[in-house]
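During the practical work, I selected for study one protein's amino acid sequence and its backbone structure tokens, as given directly below:
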Amino acid sequence: MVLQLFTLLGALGMFLYGMNMMSTGLQKVAGDRLRNFLSAMTSNPFKGVLTGLGITSVIQSSSATTVMVVSFVNAGLLTLAQAISVIMGANIGTTVTAWLVSWLGFKADISILAVPLMALGFVLSLSKKGQRRNISELIVGFSLLFLGLSLMKSSVPDLQQTPEVLSFIHGWQGFGFGSILIFLLLGTILTLILQSSSATMALTLIMLNMGWIQFDMACAMVLGENIGTTITANIAASVGNTSARRSAFAHTVFNLFGVVWALAAFPIFLKLTGFITANIFGVPNPAASDFTVEVMTGVDGSALQSPTQTAALYGLSMLHTLFNAFNTLILIWFIPFIEKFVCRLIKDSKRNSEEVYRLKYIEAGPIATPELAIEQAFNEIKHFAQISKNGLGYVKDAISEGNVDKFEKVREKLVKYEEISDRVEFEIATFLNSVSAGDISEDTSMKIKAMYKIIGELESLGDSGESISRILSRRNSRKKSFEEDTIKKLLEMVSAVDNAYNVMILNLNSAHDGSLINIKNAYEAEERINQLRNSFRDSEIDALEDSQKSYQTSVYYLDVLNELEKMGDFIINISQDLERVFIKR
């Protein structure tokens, strides 16, 4: 009995691992196309629903779709209203798993086909082409999923041989509406424990197929699973930002509303489900009052699929689909009200000026897959670039400020910006480390390497700003000051660096949306900085030779000039990193 229990747990683990592997493989095969499709196909709620349905049907993970949606909300590519419509579609899309299991996992022994498929997956995994290796991951994941399901079916205890246990479970079903609530709670708890509504759905289908529970109790468990999956999402989003929490809570509002109306109309909903199932598939009505699941065995003792088992499985999958479809049809008209409701309950966090510079995009819960996580990382890098550019404004103020006390306040801000740069670089790098620890595609690996280099250059820009403040502080301690013409030249240099920043940020955005063609604009901005530095340096050296300038003051001036030119080097390096990885050859 103990060995049987561990076999069941191992089979469940194989099912979950296979589903995760299949989802990851699919996302690697179509990662960029999925993201582009999501951002393009949400112009109205109906398109949003179809988008969420389509993507979740393909990648078999509503949580992965939700994480992707949250990152797009954070990036401003999707509004909260659009995100809600996509999440509605994702709820319908996740019902595809139940149909796959019902059709393939019980009707036929898919495990017979799964083993040869694993051989095919192994052959593809030996290929040098990254896309073929991704397809191999998809095939092996699919095979493991159904092998795990087959093992779960064969390793569950035969309660017919232990009637006292069976009578105990049946006893839970004798409290009328109270029993419905008990099994609803059971479905919720199982989903929380397994962290996967698909796994709970598979277990529910097995329990129903084995005749352990009645059809109506299995339906109650499905409703509970819909609650459980929203609690999981809210726990994940609790450490995230406002957009993450609002998206997760909108998911909760959607499913809770559905469970309330489904419970209120439970007998009618079951009859409708049974009627539709019986007429579409030509099986017995699973919602009929005299319906009982019959477990059949062959002469040799092997399990046979009875008509009532088929009817029950199809009926449960149909209820899952109808629940999410009806819920979407009802609530799609009320998306603006849901948006206002969640915004009213979850208000924007009030951060002080220092807190504004915390990470903004990669704190929206756990990583779904590496292929989707780099979306959040790139958004954070663009945010980091804007923070760095804001620091250049204080460099300009420090150069212009003649009052020593006021200068010290500006210098403190530059020191703080350098600390911010260090912290943001470390946190993005830590996130990229966790992404790299997963099984990533070759393309994603190259992008991550480029991102490491980019955040290093952005951190160096923060160092340069702080270095300039130290040079100017030393100048002030020696009671020196720049002439008006010198300040004018330095401000012209700052303006050239500011233009290079704008070009670099433009190139980051273009690389992100796939429209970067070349970085000619970056080379032109860098050339302008070099020309100014050379011209100003040469004229300053000429003035020193003619004894028209104080040597010590000129040294401070040339040091600031060189530091600004170094900033231009760091900026061009970022565009060059983008050119090597993100421009389509």
In short: The chain has 21 helices and two strands.
